[in-house]
């Protein structure tokens, strides 16, 4: 049977674009790709990239204050949000164009429209056109999930945060995950009055307890109000605010409510269930280690599979799929020991086992230190950095590394190489410090602060 394409990709985000490019440019495949929104997906258009630029913009307030403490005669005037937003939009246009060019240069045919799956080898575009393909890759990502409740339609999601007409004065952030914590810090850096409602005992669930407590304390010291064990029970519009009643009865007015309560895989209306593609409870596509679904010609990568929802992981999955299917190089994405950073202020970088996981497993030593880094100490700030290692008592292998502080993102990327390689605590210790740096503390922690014996 002859097909219009060897591969049809639905979704032009990180995973889909990588798979399409490798299949076409290196696998010689005839590839079509449909994207209903802007090319680049969540990461480029409404996620990592604009977020990181906002983190950078937001951090300059403190940097200018620090510069003054170092003797520079500078003064931070008010932040010009419209000016920043215009530049941000131009940058996203540039990146989107770069993504398109990359695909075009690889020979991928782009369809700027929505596509759904009709049968195991056919997709139908919103234009009415049907196209056949030997393989179909679903890379449609995720979408913010807002729990329904009275007035919940008054809240915005992270999607809208990059397009605000003006910076609000008072913001409520609902949720305590990556997105909630990052936006709370970004907005606070811009001078916004920020309150967080988080339903659990501490924000950033899943990260090392000591690390997330350290981040939360620093956020509070920066002026963010964090109300734990609290949810928004009701929201209503008043003439000049959104009035929020919390589950503990507290009532407060805000100009903007950001709901950052998780994301859901984007599978609704794609026609997958009717074909026998197995979906999980949240609508995620169930795939095997080769990213193949229960229908052999259909594969899925990235957030739509709800495995490890991070851009670089989606890229690995897309690449491995293209290598396996179109280059005869069987490859699996490796989901173990994936490092990540939360771009809070201060940042949190983490790879591997937390102390709590180590305690449950038993037989670990904990090395940890907190200190005031030279730069902020000189500037007169109370900020403290946390460095922490979880070490296997028997093998001496470093099982986890957790860093809270400025540039924790850059530090954890490098530490993750050693941890991924299986470096021991003694390997860290044999590495001579680079002085004076923050990261040198990773190789100078001599004595464990705690031991969790075998269980
Ligand atoms: P997360 O899963 O990180 O956080 C969701 C938050 O919302 C949690 O605090 C959760 O609470 C809370 N929540 C969930 N449902 C409800 C509810 N019904 N009512 C009240 N609170 C609720 O999701 P995000 O949306 O922040 O981010 C999505 C994913 O995107 C992340 O998991 C991450 O994989 C990725 N991401 C990565 C970034 C990075 O690498 N820097 C940045 C941004 C996103 P609880 O903890 O109790 O479940």
Could you walk me through the main structural features you see in this protein, from its secondary elements to its overall organization?
It is built from 13 helices and 22 strands. It is of the alpha/beta class. The protein has three domains: 5-144 and 264-326, FAD/NAD(P)-binding domain; 152-261, 3-Layer(bba) Sandwich (FAD/NAD(P)-binding domain), CATH 3.50.50; 346-452, 2-Layer Sandwich (Enolase-like, domain 1), CATH 3.30.390.30. The strands form five sheets. Strands 1, 2, 3, 4, 5, 6 and 16 form a seven-stranded mixed beta sheet that branches. A six-stranded antiparallel beta sheet has the order 17-18-21-20-19-22, with helices on both faces. It has a four-stranded parallel beta sheet with strand order 10-9-8-14. Strand 1, helix 1 and strand 2 (31-34) form a beta-alpha-beta unit. Helix 3 crosses helix 6 (178-189). The protein starts with a strand and ends with a strand. The model has no long low-confidence stretch (mean pLDDT 97). Bound molecules: NADPH dihydro-nicotinamide-adenine-dinucleotide phosphate. NADPH dihydro-nicotinamide-adenine-dinucleotide phosphate (NDP) binds next to helix 6 and strand 17.
């Amino acid at each position: 049977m002859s097909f219009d394409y060897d591969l049809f990709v639905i979704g032009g985000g990180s995973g889909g674009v990588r798979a399409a490019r490798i299949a076409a440019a290196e696998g010689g495949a005839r590839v079509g790709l449909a994207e209903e929104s802007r090319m680049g997906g969540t990461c480029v258009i409404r996620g990592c990239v604009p977020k990181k630029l906002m983190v950078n913009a937001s951090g300059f307030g403190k940097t200018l204050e620090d510069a003054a403490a170092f003797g520079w005669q500078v003064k931070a005037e008010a932040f010009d949000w419209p000016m920043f937003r215009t530049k941000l939009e131009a940058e996203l246009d540039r990146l989107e164009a770069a993504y398109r060019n990359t695909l075009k240069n690889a020979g991928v045919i782009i369809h700027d429209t929505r596509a759904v799956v009709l049968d195991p080898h056919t997709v139908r575009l919103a234009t009415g056109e049907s196209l056949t393909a030997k393989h179909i890759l679903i890379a449609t990502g995720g979408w913010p999930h807002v729990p329904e409740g009275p007035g919940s339609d008054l809240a915005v999601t992270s999607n809208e945060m990059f397009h605000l007409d003006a910076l609000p004065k008072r913001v409520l952030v609902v949720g305590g995950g990556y997105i909630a914590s990052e936006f709370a810090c970004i907005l606070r850096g811009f001078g916004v009055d920020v309150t967080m409602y988080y339903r659990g005992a501490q924000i950033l669930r899943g990260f090392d307890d000591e690390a997330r407590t350290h981040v939360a304390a620093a956020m509070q010291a920066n002026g963010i109000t964090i109300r734990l064990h609290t949810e928004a029970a009701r929201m209503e519009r008043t003439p000049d605010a959104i009035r929020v009643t919390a589950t503990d009865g507290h009532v407060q007015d805000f100009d903007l409510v950001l709901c950052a309560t998780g994301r859901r895989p984007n599978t609704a209306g794609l026609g997958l269930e009717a074909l026998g593609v197995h979906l999980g409870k949240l609508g995620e596509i169930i795939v095997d280690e080769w990213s193949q679904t229960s229908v052999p010609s259909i594969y899925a990568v990235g957030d739509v599979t709800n495995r490890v929802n991070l851009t670089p992981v989606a890229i690995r999955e897309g690449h491995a799929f293209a290598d396996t299917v179109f280059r005869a190089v069987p490859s699996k994405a490796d989901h173990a020991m994936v490092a990540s950073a939360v771009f809070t202020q201060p940042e949190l970088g983490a790879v591997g086992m937390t102390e709590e996981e180590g305690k449950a497993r038993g037989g670990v030593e904990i090395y940890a230190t907190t200190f005031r880094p030279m730069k902020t100490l000189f500037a007169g700030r109370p900020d403290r950095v946390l460095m922490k290692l979880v070490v296997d008592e028997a093998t001496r292998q470093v099982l986890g590394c957790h860093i809270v502080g400025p540039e924790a993102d850059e530090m954890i990327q490098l530490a993750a190489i050693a941890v991924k390689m299986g470096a021991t605590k003694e390997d860290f210790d044999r590495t001579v410090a680079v002085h004076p740096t923050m990261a040198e503390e990773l190789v100078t922690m001599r004595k464990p602060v705690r031991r969790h014996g075998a269980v």
